[in-house]
Model the fold of this input.
Amino acid sequence: MPHASQPQVAVVVGSGQLSSRRGGSDSPPGPLELLVEAAVAAAQDAGGSHVLQHIDTVVAVPIQHWQSNNPAAELASALGITASRTVQTTPGGDIGVVALNWMAQEIAAGRSKGALLVGANVNRSFDLAQRRGVELEFAGGSHPEPEIVGKWRSDGSSPQENEVGLDRPVYIYPVIENALRAWRGQSLAEHRRFMGDLFTRFTAVAADNPYAWFPTQRSSEELADPTPDNRIIGFPYTKLLNAILSTDQAAAVVMLGSDTATSARVNPDGWVHWWGGGAATEAAWFVSQRPDLAYCPAMAQSHHAALRNAQVGVDDIAKFDFYSCFPAPVEMALRVMDLDPADSRGYTVTGGLPYAGGPGSAYTVHSLAAMYTQLRRSPHEIGMVTGNGWYLTKHSAAIFSTDPPRAVRPCADTPELDEEGAKQAQPVPIRRGSGSGRIDSYTVAHDRAGQPERGMVVGSFGDGTRFVANTASDADVLAELEAQEMVGRTGKVVDGGGPTLRFDLD
Done:
């Protein structure tokens, strides 16, 4: 093992992915079976099963429906790996990239020779079993408690947001989306085409991805125009602009130190070097308290830190995979990195969460696996993968290339915002009261038949404090919310003593 003053270079040497369509059977594969298959595929990709014997650290992202206190230990045992370290990450769409950055730095510091990162979902099997009235359980053994990587808060939305119904991704991301539309100055029709045009390119990538859950190319109109088969869920998002949750998928990535990779006889032509990374969390944890609903300073902080640590500029990146549960996170990345939506490089190597799948905490394990494969086929090009946890709350990024890193000591250090930036990022107070108000953003929730049922507003009082409110629920009001640009509209905030405030348009 190298001395800490002479760090190894961390290299990704293999990846494996799978999508299982066996969820409807009487005995669908469990998460351990899927993980073993993905890990073995990653080892074979690296040169053979012997590569697994050079792994001393197994890292697992959280896997729903698996009753195991240590999935990494379960997998190590199943693979016959003598792992001195088993790690469980905290949940989040940012965590796969955070974990890989952590693995790379542990390898560079000499605390690990090689690591295996895995993620899986068995949501489809679980959903199908529930529909049949079958109780599906994926049991786990008893193992020593794992190390924990990552930070976690269980409250993704505030009490005020929860009260009005802004309590899940399908409603909170539309609030961010509508703020971004207003910032760009688009009409509602222009915005619909913008979203469709952005994600039709994602579907083209998914169509060529053998592991995509929906490998179907779709037009801009198919994606963004509401129809009976493509109902609006949270205005302005149709069903086909939402991430797919019900999949059975798994992915694995093998990372070794360069000395270990040589000892394991891994062909250097298959090495993809880790060049550096970054991660940051919004100071305003809750969306309704963000000073600017159309900007994420911590995303800029994270992504630009990764570029600086890798000693590259955004123009040097040949391949991107921006986290893409909905259009808004991609659009936010374009804003903070000053990129053209129509850039020929594109912004996904998987096809994105609505089409490639990989929901929950596992998507970035798939995007990292896919980026490895893409870069290995394109020597000397540089790739960037990003992650997003909660509601554009936690951000992560990593940079890779087949070439050795430019930095002498690659890192994922992320400097704090400067004093002015930190001041501008501080949470805006939320208060309850009546008075004149202005809409900062909004959405309308639709029922399963596609009919509007609840208007939700994030707005500002005249003193700059924020409110979160519902609108009246009659059909005319809800129709007006979706027919005109409402960001900037004024009205009255009414505190009638009930659990929520009401916002009435002037």
